[in-house]
Design brief:
Blueprint lengths: L7 H7 L8 E6 L19 H14 L4 E6 L3 H14 L5 E3 L13 H22 L10 H17 L4 E6 L1 H12 L14 E7 L2 E5 L6 E4 L3
Parallel strand pairs: 1-4, 2-3, 2-4
Antiparallel strand pairs: 1-5, 5-6, 6-7
Helix pairs in contact: 2-3, 4-6
Length: 222
């Protein structure tokens, strides 16, 4: 559960970057209400605590110029993005992007993938995505899906337009982190509410940071 101040983890990570550097946050939505068993909870909203935490994250970004703000179309992500923008004082538009959720970068057959998620859970699916040679049922290859997200992030970074925010879900963020760091799900911190992967451009590479891990690097457009 998110408690007041948890957004400080992401702000502390971002503060490790040099001032004035264009950056991007791929961030999990804030705390939500409980998802009813046996459902995807697509319409489940944020809690009041979640909205307040997202607002405080925005306040922590207020001294940085605004970049692009994109979000999964699901309500809890849209509410997170809107609260971040409100807290930051930015005039940026909140842009829904199905690459970040509903269905996200990996799902190509919602019925097959959805059935698998309900059967073995998000962590089980992510484990398959990071370890199996073939993608799970109803999904594109992990490398292709990750590349789609990185291409979108690289476009924002290369525009040199301040700090961009991409609000998504733990299932997307966990696969992104695991793939970039080459780790199984038990070897990195599972994304909590408002945890973020911080990325920035350095020449022809994307640099990235995740909680508790060292800085990494990935070629742009690879």
């Amino acid at each position: 559960m998110t408690v007041p101040g948890d957004e400080a983890r992401t702000l502390a990570l971002l503060d490790r970057l040099p001032e004035g550097l264009a950056a991007a946050l791929v961030v999990r939505h804030a705390e939500r209400e409980e998802i009813p068993p046996g459902t995807f909870g697509n319409d489940v909203p944020l809690t009041d605590r979640g909205r307040h935490a997202a607002y405080r994250l925005g306040e922590g970004l207020s001294h940085r110029p605004a970049g692009i703000v994109k979000t999964s179309p699901l309500p809890r992500c849209v509410q997170t993005a809107e609260s971040i923008v409100a807290g930051s004082g930015w005039t940026a538009d909140v842009i829904p992007d199905m690459l970040l959720g509903d269905p996200g970068p990996f799902v190509v057959d919602s019925e097959l993938a959805g059935s698998l998620i309900l059967d073995i859970g998000i962590a089980g699916v992510v484990t398959q995505q990071l370890s199996a040679t073939e993608p799970p049922d109803g999904m594109r290859s992990t490398s292709e899906g990750v590349q789609l997200v990185l291409d979108s992030v690289a476009e924002a970074l290369c525009a040199r337009c301040g700090t961009s925010v991409f609000v998504t879900h733990d299932a997307v963020l966990a696969v992104l982190v695991g793939t970039l760091y080459g780790r199984s799900v038990d070897k990195f911190r599972w994304p909590d509410y408002l945890d973020a992967l911080v990325l920035w451009a350095d020449s022809d590479r994307i640099q990235f940071l995740w909680h508790g891990l060292d800085e990494g690097s990935y070629p742009i457009g690879s």
